[in-house]
Amino acid sequence: MTQAATAQPEPPKADDYIIQVRDLVVKYGERTVLDGINLDVKRGEVFVILGGSGCGKSTLLRNLVGLMRPHSGTILIDGKDFTAMNDEERIEIRRRLGMCFQGSALFNSMTIGDNVALPLREHTRLEASTIDIMTKIKLELVGLGGFDEYMPSQLSGGMKKRAGLARAMAMDPDIIFYDEPSAGLDPIVAAGLDSLIRKMQHTFNLTSVVVTHEMESVKLIADRVVMLLKGRVVGLGTLDELRQNDHPFVQQFFAREPDDESTGNANYLESLTA
Amino acid sequence: MTYLLGYTGRSTLNLLYAAATVCVLMVDTVNWTFIQPLRGRGIRMRSAVEHFVEFGVRSMPIVGLICFLIGVIMALNAAGTLATWGATRYIANLVGVSSLRELAPLMTAILITGRSGSAITAEIGTMKVAEEIDALNVMGLNPTKFLVVPKFLAMLCAVPCATVLSMLIMIFGGYCVSVYYVGVDSGIYIDQTLEALEMKDFVTGMVKSVFFAVVICWVGVFRGFQVEGGAEGVGRQTTSSVVTSIMFIIFVDLVWTVLFY
Ligand SMILES: Nc1ncnc2c1ncn2[C@@H]1O[C@H](COP(=O)(O)OP(=O)(O)O)[C@@H](O)[C@H]1O
Ligand SMILES: [Mg+2]
């Protein structure tokens, strides 16, 4: 599990970057939420996006999977500009992406099995029996074998997230995005999900982009980390590199210190309105 | 004053924006319902049938009951006045014409709005809040094709079908009052009804009901996609979906009535 900290990868060539984000600016109406983000994700690594609540992590993820169009800047996926594509091309690219949503976003009117089978049914011409087998394999993979007849409402939070992962894996994506995979789960279940993320990355050589605000899971899963503060990048690198970073916010995050009491409220309000 | 102007400006902009969104939704729905299937992209027929059962078949008990009662009420009201002229047989004309032209389509549409228009908004709104719509998009599945088209087709069949039944039931309500309460001869009532009704009355009612179906579906879907925030957002839009929908139904009704006469 500490392989993240000990591995010494040689500097990758430019085409080893599967995602490249350049000067990304995202606005909700007049409000700038992401302000000039630059980052690169290497093929096959677990890349963690770390930051406090409301700093724009989910927004960044929504841009990376093309759910939002940025105000300016480019997102290259495998060297192709995702932001400049038409809808057909986007759909092609999206088939290579999987996303696990914060609240799992399973379709509540369908069984777990149908949820996982859905992308296969809609995008492939496979036999029903083949799809059935593939669905069972994916569920087995995330530790939910035998749950395909359950409805999402019958599962616990952690199981829902696992089912969401199985669905995201259905089309065998190259990159998988996780939005707060361990949020709202107890530490044991959360640790289980963390090791699942590692296992997926390991078994399928998946590139994983994980959004989180929990230092504990970062230590377990991260190859490299980007740290966001109010829509800006304040640190980027391996966990060890980040520890050396002397930006006060980074240090504060590592030390788990609260904001200074006198400025705490002001900071909080600022973070809401920034 | 500036406040008032600003408010007017903002409201107008919002309205225009909503209108634009609705237009996009309409084009998209029609595209995925009628044009894309010709290019070999299927329709989720099973889902459409399920929705038809939900919108049409399951709403029949309540629609039937209300329409029967409206028929009864109309006949009772008419009986009082017409009895003074000894013209109770004309209850049949009154009930027949008003049900076909106006009341059966309108009541059916309003009841289905309350029952299913709100359900459409709630379903889509809940899916939006739970990021399920985003999940569809990420999977490369078009929400219009996936969610809207089955509902649209189902509504397009369910409302006219329910309307035909409502027409019959309403007339039956009038028949019951006339025959068993007022004492009109059963044969005379049926003859009067058949004589009074023209094909045009029926067609007017059916055309209206098709347009009502479109209104119910689109308003429901549009409001659903408008949901922001959490559960209370769903509640708010569901209420406003029913209100908006009924308003548009009456408006469309007015336009058609003016056009036909
Ligand atoms: N749909 C939206 N409309 C307007 N503002 C939004 C919307 N979604 C998020 N925001 C704002 O953008 C900021 C970043 O949100 P988000 O990316 O969800 O943060 P995080 O996931 O890091 O907690 C927040 O301050 C939030 O209020
Ligand atoms: Mg978030």
Description:
- The complex is a heterodimer of chains A (274) and B (261).
- By secondary structure, chain A is α/β, with parallel strands linked by helices.
- Chain A contains 11 helices and 10 strands.
- In chain A, helix 4 (112-123) packs across helix 5 (128-141).
- The longest helix of chain A has 18 residues, at 187-204.
- Chain A starts with a helix and ends with a helix.
- Chain B has one domain (44-260).
- In chain B, 87% of the residues lie in helices and 0% in strands.
- Chain B has 9 helices and no strands.
- Chains A and B meet through strand 6 and helix 4 of A and helix 5 of B.
- Residues 28, 33, 51, 53-59 of chain A line the site of adenosine-5'-diphosphate.
- Magnesium ion (MG) binds next to helix 2 of chain A.
Main attributes?
A: 274 residues, alpha/beta, 6-stranded mixed beta sheet, globular, disordered N terminus, B: 261 residues, 9 helices, elongated, binds adenosine-5'-diphosphate, binds magnesium ion
Q: Largest sheet of chain A, described in full?
A: 6 strands, mixed
Rounded mean pLDDT of chain A is: 85
How far apart the termini of chain A lie comes to 37 Å
Mean pLDDT of chain B: 90
User: What helical percentage do the residues of chain B reach?
Assistant: over 70%
Q: Give the helix level of chain A as a range of percent.
A: 40-55%
Order of helices and strands of chain A: HEEEHEEHEHHHEHEHEEHHH
Largest interface: A-B, 23 and 12 residues
Biggest pleated-sheet summary of chain B = none
Structural class of chain B: mainly alpha
SS-based class of chain A: alpha/beta
What small molecules are bound in this structure? adenosine-5'-diphosphate, magnesium ion
Oligomer state of the chains in this structure:
heterodimer
Total strand segments of chain B = 0
- Overall morphology of chain B: elongated
Task: Provide the gyration radius of chain A in Å.
Answer: 19 Å
Strand content of chain A is 15-25%
Low-confidence stretches of chain A: 1-7
